[in-house]
Design brief:
By secondary structure, the protein is α/β, with parallel strands linked by helices. 50% of the residues lie in helices and 16% in strands. The strands form two sheets. Strands 1-9-8-2-5-3-4 form a seven-stranded mixed sheet, with helices on both faces. It has a two-stranded antiparallel ribbon with strand order 6-7.
């Protein structure tokens, strides 16, 4: 497709630009996206309203504007993630907590790294791959051309890319004492979910991480990935293995993961992926 080929060429070209220039251009791109992506802007505004009801309208509007600037920067970060050489990226990278991962793997049951959807996750996943050997579970894109680009790009970060529904590959990785990265914060329509509070609002939350950890003995470790506020680089942190998790109670485990994501969001609310319909409830909170 011509549009996809053009996107690929732009990402490749942008990866060669000075980093500060990329971030400035990304901020401009984000403002343009905010103007034209009316539906996504409405979803993001509603999510902020649901999750931060105590904030003033002015505060939420500021977060909304900053969020779209962050989304624009994510476009250029994808170019870096997919095409930039390792030596260029190391100067932007601060990866902490590798000892936590090594300790978890020392038990021989594998490790499940749980992360949330932040706008810099494509690049931060690549930065994590510079320091840690891991596999990643991803949801394929519906557009096969875009999916091929993303799949190839993510292979520069993770050793293996596992399709989201391929539980056999997931389990085989843990049996081989691999670290496997998954995201745990988006709405799911699958049956293996509970309606757990997310910022006090019921949200369909997957229980897969807890169920797999229960069956395999794998440790579960949180991963936080953020862009530095001064645009000096990125911080990726692997936390210590969660204690009393899984608990054997699906609701308790879902609440634990949602609370973990909430704490991460509060560190940089504008960087969270607010344009996703997190609350697929009935009636829909996104209806006009």
């Amino acid at each position: 497709m011509p549009g996809v080929r053009l996107l690929l060429a732009c990402l490749r070209l942008s990866s060669k630009l000075p980093y500060r220039a990329q971030m400035s251009m990304g901020s401009v791109a984000g403002r343009i996206i905010r103007i034209f992506a009316r539906n996504r802007r409405t979803i993001a505004a509603r999510n902020l309203e649901l999750c931060f009801p105590e904030m003033s309208d002015a505060q939420r509007k500021q977060y909304l504007n900053e969020h779209f600037a962050s989304l624009g920067r994510a476009l250029f970060e994808a170019g870096l993630a997919y095409f930039a050489p390792d030596e260029r990226l190391r100067s932007l990278s601060q990866v902490n907590g590798l000892d936590n991962l090594q300790h978890a793997l020392s038990y021989g049951h594998g490790a499940i790294l749980v992360a949330a959807h932040f706008t810099s996750m494509e690049l931060c996943g690549r930065l994590l791959g510079l320091e840690a050997d891991y596999d990643a579970v991803i949801r394929p894109f519906s557009n096969p051309d875009i999916d091929a680009i993303v799949h190839e790009g993510r292979h520069r970060a993770a050793r293996r890319v596992i399709p989201k529904k391929s539980f056999k590959q997931f389990l085989k990785g843990l049996q081989a004492n691999r670290a496997i990265l998954i995201t745990v914060d988006q709405a799911t329509t699958a049956s293996n979910k509970v309606m757990a509070p997310f910022f006090g609002v019921p949200a369909a939350t997957s229980i897969n991480a807890a169920r797999i950890a229960q069956n395999t003995g794998a440790a579960v470790l949180p991963v936080l990935w953020l862009r530095a506020p001064d645009l000096s680089g990125y911080r990726v942190e692997i936390g210590a293995a969660l204690t009393d998790f899984p608990s054997g109670n699906a609701m308790n485990d879902a609440c634990t993961l949602n609370a973990l994501v909430e704490d991460q969001i509060l560190e940089a609310p504008e960087q969270y992926y607010w344009i996703h319909r997190r609350f697929k409830n009935e009636p829909s909170p996104y209806d006009d």
